[in-house]
Amino acid sequence: MTAPHELHEFVVVDLETTGFSPRTCQIIEVGAVRVDMVTGARASFSSFVRCEAALPYHISRLTGISSDMLEGAPEGAQVVAELAGFIRGLPIVAYNAGFDMSFLRAAAPEVFETHPVVCALQAARRYLRLPDYKLATVARHFGVDQTAAHRALDDCLTTLSIFEGIRAISGARG
Question: What is the total count of domains within the chain?
Answer without folding.
Answer: 1
